[in-house]
Automatic annotation (TrEMBL):
Keyword vocabulary terms for this entry: ATP-binding, Ligase, Nucleotide-binding, One-carbon metabolism
Lineage start: Eukaryota, Viridiplantae, Streptophyta, Embryophyta, Tracheophyta
Name under which the protein is recorded: formate--tetrahydrofolate ligase
Enzyme Commission number: 6.3.4.3
Gene Ontology molecular functions: ATP binding; formate-tetrahydrofolate ligase activity
Gene Ontology BP term (one): one-carbon metabolic process
Pathway given in the UniProt record: One-carbon metabolism; tetrahydrofolate interconversion
Top-tier EC class: ligase
Keyword Nuclease part of the UniProt annotation: no
Keyword DNA damage belongs to the record: no
Domain of life: Eukaryota
Length: 356
């Protein structure tokens, strides 16, 4: 790794023009040109440096892999490394941000000082990528590569979040009756035979009686489209009298994204998804995803998204990319499971560097 890093730095940082592919680039090249000038290592090589076997991850092409949560079970008794957090500062004239600082620090520690180090980063929103802010793979010689894959679809986690979020939104608008044992228990009904229910219990159990004006759950999409921020749904001929105002948010603003970043296991994910409140009944009682009977389906949609994605920096140091909740509406960190896995992989004396 160190030999590769030194040769790359000598090649790219030289103030004499460097030629490759028939194109002459000056030493102050654009981020994308710098990223594309380096042939990434195969992900299996990055995994091998972390002592990960082929049964610990699923490859997504040559340069990405999903690290399975079973790694935590196998390394349960091993020591954790040091945890380093790069916080935000007032922007500098040259625009160094948390991501580029985090990546640059890890490259210095791993590629040049030969420390065991893992970078943990959030996956950026495509709303930012196609907006004025741009991507979040770092910048200059401190980048995650392949930069285009990092910034775009990666391994499809955001698409899973979008699907799960919109499935719940559809359930809110279409489901009005339930038949769930969980709901019976929540309502304090101990009877097991339908004919034993009183009229009051039937009324409580059979209908969620959602108050449309209380619904807070909105649909999401992972692209910029401000004209969908406020819309009216229920205007079809089959939904007469069900028109209500709602709108679209960006996918990473979904509560499901925040839940993904906070979860610690698939069972924990299922429980957290089930507790999400989407609105109130007309009696003022909160209505959850469990009440709608879709929490299990949401979990199935998220079953692969719970695994962090292994990538690399320009200088071949490992990166775990997972989740991406906004800091202004959620906690603004990459996932807990990515941090926990990284701390076990670097072991005693190693370092995990993340941004917040």
């Amino acid at each position: 790794m160190v030999e590769r890093s030194l040769s790359m730095r000598e090649n790219l940082s030289s103030k004499t023009p460097v030629t490759w592919g028939g194109t002459v680039l000056k030493y102050q090249a654009a981020d994308i040109d710098i990223a594309n000038s380096v042939e990434p290592l195969h992900t299996s090589q990055i995994a091998q440096e972390l002592n990960l076997g082929t049964h610990h991850y699923d490859l997504y092409g040559k340069y990405k892999a999903k690290v399975l949560l079973s790694v935590l079970d196998e390394l349960h008794g091993s020591e954790d490394g040091y945890y380093v957090v790069v916080g935000g500062i007032t922007p500098t004239p040259l625009g160094e941000d948390k991501s580029s600082t985090t990546v640059g620090l890890c490259q210095a520690l791993g590629a040049f000082l030969d420390k065991k180090v893992v970078t943990c980063l959030r996956q950026p929103s495509k709303g930012l990528i196609f907006g004025i802010k741009g991507g979040a793979a770092g910048g200059g010689y401190s980048q995650v590569i392949p930069m285009d894959e990092f910034n775009l679809h990666l391994t499809g986690d955001r698409h899973a979040i979008t699907a799960a979020n919109n499935l719940l939104a559809a359930a809110i608008d279409t489901r009005s009756s339930m038949n769930l044992h969980k709901l019976i228990k929540k309502l304090g009904i101990s009877k097991t035979r339908p004919e034993e229910l009183t009229p009051q219990e039937i009324k409580k159990f059979a209908r969620l009686d959602i108050d449309p004006s209380s619904i807070t759950w909105r649909r999401v999409m992972d692209i910029n489209d401000r004209f969908l921020r406020k819309i009216a749904v229920g205007q079809g001929p089959e939904e007469k009298g069900m028109v209500r105002e709602t709108g679209f948010d960006i996918s990473v603003a979904s509560e499901i994204m925040a839940v993904l970043a906070l979860t610690t296991s698939l069972a924990d994910l299922r429980e957290r998804l089930g507790k999400m409140v989407v609105g109130n009944s007309k009696a003022g009682d909160p209505i959850t995803a469990d009440d709608l009977g879709v929490a299990g389906a949401l979990t199935v949609l998220m079953k692969d998204a719970i695994n962090p994605t292994l990538m690399q920096t320009l200088e071949g140091t490992p990166v775990l990319v997972h989740a991406g909740p906004f800091a202004n509406i959620a906690h603004g960190n990459s996932s807990i499971v990515a941090d926990k896995i990284a701390l076990k992989l670097v072991g005693s004396g190693g370092l995990v560097v993340t941004e917040a």
